[in-house]
Amino acid sequence: SKRIRARKYVAHDGVKHYEIYGPLFFGSVAVFNEKFDIAGDPEEVIIDFQESRVVDMSAIEALNGLTERYAAQGKRVRLKHLSPDCRILLQNAEQIIDVNVMEDPQYKVVTDIL
């Protein structure tokens, strides 16, 4: 199975960044969850999926659970560079999950499909 990796750094503004590499799916969720230092992280955390793909509902549930665990410590997680198919998964699950997605201007589509 493809390994999921995370590159971590704290930016000059004090925000902790996690850059995720490799697919997030049911087979990599456990390893993904181990990457995060919820107790030690600052109040603002950004998880960047530029080099990753959120593949299935197990992945979505993992993001929701992670968001909740940070929130329980008074911290905010934002998700960045989610793929269009991941956004569809999120929309389909919006009744049961609550995550913060950072809008990526380059993905803004002006045409409304009716």
In words, what does this structure look like?
With 114 residues, the chain is an alpha/beta fold. The protein has a single domain, classed as STAS domain (Transcription Regulator spoIIAA), CATH 3.30.750.24. Helix content is 27%, strand content 22%. The chain has three helices and four strands; from the N terminus they run ββαβαβα. Strands 1-2-3-4 form a four-stranded mixed β-sheet, covered by helices on one side. It is globular, with a radius of gyration of 14 Å. The chain starts with a strand and ends in a 22-residue tail after the last helix. The model has no long low-confidence stretch (mean pLDDT 88).
Beta-strand share of residues:
15-25%
Structural shape: globular
| Spatial gap, N to C terminus | 40 Å
Number of helices: 3
Tell me roughly what share of residues is in helical segments.
25-40%
CATH class: Alpha Beta
Please specify the SSE layout and strand pairing:
Layout (H helix, E strand, L loop, with lengths): L4 E6 L5 E6 L7 H6 L9 E8 L5 H16 L3 E5 L3 H9 L22
